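This part of the workshop introduces the protein records we will be handling. A record pairs a protein's sequence with a compact description of its fold. As an example, a complete record with its sequence and its structure tokens follows.

_____
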Amino acid sequence: MDVKSGGVKSNPVLDQQEQKIKEKLGQIENKIMVMSGKGGVGKSTVAVNLAVGLSLENFYVGLLDVDLHGPNVPKMLGLERGELKRRPDGTVGPVFYSPNLQFMSVEPLLPEKNSAVMWRGPLKMSAIRQFIYDIEWGKLDYLVIDAPPGTGDEPMTVAQMIPDAYAVVVTTPQEVSLLDVRKSITFCKHVNMPILGIVENMSGMICPHCGKTIDIFKKGGGEKLAEELDIPFLGRIPVDPRIVNTGDSGRPLVAAYPNSHTAEAFEHIIKNAINVTQRLRAIKETEGPSAQGA
């Protein structure tokens, strides 16, 4: 009898899938899961602009939307009904946003725009598995994964399937958000997921009339927490009405307003993320698989 460790009978089909998943993930150099402790902090906005910004730096990028109940990535990219490309060999390719950026979401698979995804844990885990197993991502420099808020099925599935993924945790400066961020950080430590850093969103607003900064939702809470927990602070993003407008119109801010103060803030975060990623990879190569991240 073919038995794996622990006395559990081996499943040849699952074993074959696991091998194929490992091969596909092996073609992706860096995997980053963007997560948050609570909803409404701008996690998807950060994920989309991070992915688009990396693609504008001439990296090949994939954007995987595993927020199955609220898939906002297609809307933010202006491709709500984007079509999956079937290739001659029968495989399926993701939707292309640009030559350097492709994405996958449950949205193109829904029968109607307003269809609700009413799935329990096993179905959600299976869907995420299929996003990696069935989709031909090809060689990528970065795979950015937009996870739903919290520490439930979707982030846990990503952590299990992609053990070399890094986490970017998004928060706002308020204490309520920071309390939930601590739980996300505990989650990352529990599943041994290195943390690239914390992003503080909605961190002050630049007045369009006088140019002064107004701290609507406070400022500096995310940076202070990063220092306290010895986690890299990637940067802060101000409140900018153009973020809302570009998200609704499907034109990510880093591409629509590349010279704006907010785009510069995203650029700063992207550069920091690249630097921390390179540092963590260097640590792993030097110390081996047991090396832990920040």
Summary: The two ends are 43 Å apart (CA to CA). Residues 1-5 have pLDDT under 50 and may be disordered. The chain is about 40% helix and 20% strand.
